[in-house]
Design brief:
heterodimer, A: mainly alpha, 9 helices, B: alpha/beta, six-stranded mixed sheet, four-stranded antiparallel sheet, 10 helices, about 25% strand, globular, binds adenosine-5'-triphosphate, binds magnesium ion
Chain lengths: ~260, ~250
């Protein structure tokens, strides 16, 4: 009985936080243009979300491409189909691995950053200070973060794609001795508009959900530092799960529809 | 000027404020006294509109702000400055950016005017020359004074102080209390929350004692010491003998 009650109350809590998150999303969408009034803030956020994550993204993408080429290459060799390795790596990176690697890396990086920054501001009453003056934390803190993620995630994902493809091409050449010119040619030939569309639509959605979820967790922080730690964990876990879940949905829907 | 009428508030199922009524007259310095956890900060948050009471009304300059939503009450809210218990300074901004923050947000001053005001309030709280420092480079007393400067910058009609002297040395305490006193001569209405008796007695025109979410006594020191409540006796034990001696002597 007691156990049952605690399940019910924890379910209710989750439902309530889903409701709060939905309200935040509505608030974000209604006021999205307010980033103009906090330009310098938005630019600062863009810098820390984008350029500062560059190295991480290049390395992440590169490793993903190397792994894809190595695993794929050995299998293709057994079927005598090593000539399609360029195509496999390219489409694999652009459609799936690039967005997912960039999404997961940015979910942890940007997610942890947003939650801990906003959570610490919440704990030290800085957010109350804004609200007491009639300023909206959504406009002042959340929207600059959402906008900078929306702007930065797509180029970062494309950079992950490119560094993955470069890594894959070199592995294919060095390990499986495929002609470099042929590889480059097949990379260029195989990219279709549809693939680019799939690869580009994902990061747009990832960026919105990662930034809004992590800001939500930050804003909902109360109590002390332990609570903030828990919120940061939950934020990264939830953002990563949403990235994976959205990816499944996109892949499924896009294969069915397009 | 500020009137709380029968405010009740429960958070996570616990009653925090229980039928609290309070009247703060224009131009006075009111002190809300009480032990830790009594609900003092909560009262200030209700006045600011950060917490919505379950029952009762908050009337500021004749308007009940409980029923108005955030933006409607904006012009009333911006007349109130708040010095938070933990200062709530923006730690990513410098001293001068902190002091200028709300001025910039009100969007009715030129950058030059803002600069002048910032210099003025910083020198008023004796922080001139620290403009480019960050809050974490300041001492506790300096942070408190910066928090006061930030609140003063927008020239509020009413200013709320949450434990302005807690954790300060006697010199800083005296400085802060003198600041609060000098606000009175400017005509500002001040509400000070504290659990430090001496400070309360030193600056308060009206004292309100709260305990466990309820108002136990209210009035000047004499009125309060005349209450026969046991809690008042315990809470005022430090000054009780001295003060009652003083009060009795005055009578004769
Ligand atoms: N967000 C909250 N949720 C639940 N309970 C709360 C919350 N904020 C405060 N309380 C409770 O309300 C009571 C009053 O808190 P408040 O901060 O107003 O006390 P206080 O009189 O300012 O104390 P102190 O002198 O220690 O600052 C405390 O018992 C506290 O546990
Ligand atoms: Mg308090």
């Amino acid at each position: 009985m007691i156990k049952n009650n605690s399940i019910v109350s924890s379910f209710k809590k989750r439902l309530a936080s889903l409701e709060d998150y939905t309200l935040l999303v509505v608030d974000i969408l209604k006021n999205i243009t307010s980033y103009k009034t906090s330009w310098s803030n938005t630019i600062q956020e863009m810098y820390s979300v984008g350029p500062q994550a560059l190295l991480l993204i290049i390395i992440g993408g590169l490793f993903a491409g190397v792994i894809l080429a190595t695993e794929g290459g050995h299998n293709l060799v057994t079927f005598g189909a090593i000539t399609v390795i360029g195509r496999t790596v390219t489409l694999g990176m652009i459609r799936e691995l690039g967005p997912i690697i960039a999404g997961l890396l940015l979910a942890s990086r940007t997610g942890a950053k947003n939650t801990s920054e906003i959570g610490a501001m919440q704990l030290s009453e800085q957010i109350d200070a804004l609200r007491a003056f009639g300023l909206s934390p959504t406009k002042k803190l959340v929207i600059p973060r959402v906008v900078s993620a929306l702007v930065m995630f797509l180029p970062l994902t494309l950079i992950a794609d490119i560094s993955g493809i470069i890594g894959g091409v070199f592995i294919s050449h060095l390990t499986f001795h495929v002609d470099l010119a042929y590889l480059i040619n097949s990379v260029m030939q195989c990219i279709k508009l549809k693939d680019l569309f799939v690869g580009c639509i994902k990061p747009v959605f990832f960026s919105f959900f990662i930034s809004s979820i992590s800001c939500y967790y930050g804003l909902s922080t109360s109590g002390g530092t332990t609570e903030l730690g828990k919120k940061a964990i939950n934020s990264v876990v939830m953002s990563s799960a949403v990235v994976l879940g959205l990816d499944v949905i996109f892949t499924k829907v896009i294969w069915e529809v397009l | 000027m500020i009137e709380l009428e029968n405010i009740s508030l429960a958070l996570t199922g616990r009653t925090i404020l229980d039928d609290v009524s309070l009247f703060i007259e224009k131009g006075t310095t009111s002190v809300i006294l009480g032990p830790s956890g009594a609900g003092k900060s909560t009262i200030l948050k209700v006045i600011l509109g950060l917490l919505k009471p379950d029952k009762g009304s908050v009337i500021i300059e004749g308007r009940n702000i409980v029923d108005e939503n955030g933006n409607d009450a904006l012009d009333v809210r911006r007349k109130i400055g708040m010095v938070f218990q933990a200062n709530a300074l923006f730690d990513s901004l410098t001293v001068e950016q902190n002091a200028a923050y709300f001025l910039k947000e009100s969007r009715n001053k030129t950058p030059r005017e803002i600069n002048t005001i910032v210099e003025e309030v910083l020198s008023f709280v004796n922080l001139s020359g620290t403009n480019k420092l960050y809050p974490d480079q300041l001492s506790g007393g300096m942070k408190k004074r910066l928090a006061i400067a930030r609140a003063l910058a927008v020239d509020p009609k009413i200013i709320l102080f949450d434990e302005p002297t807690t954790g300060l040395d006697p010199i800083n305490t005296k400085a802060v209390l003198n600041l609060i006193k000098s606000l009175k001569s400017r005509g500002t209405t001040s509400v000070i929350v504290t659990h430090i008796l001496n400070d309360a007695i030193a600056i308060g025109d009206v004292l309100t004692v709260i305990n466990d979410g309820k108002v136990t006594a209210s009035g000047n020191l004499k009125d309060i010491l005349n209450t026969k409540d046991q809690f008042i006796k315990d809470f005022f034990y430090e000054v009780f003998e001295d003060a009652s001696f003083f009060v009795n002597n005055k009578k004769e």
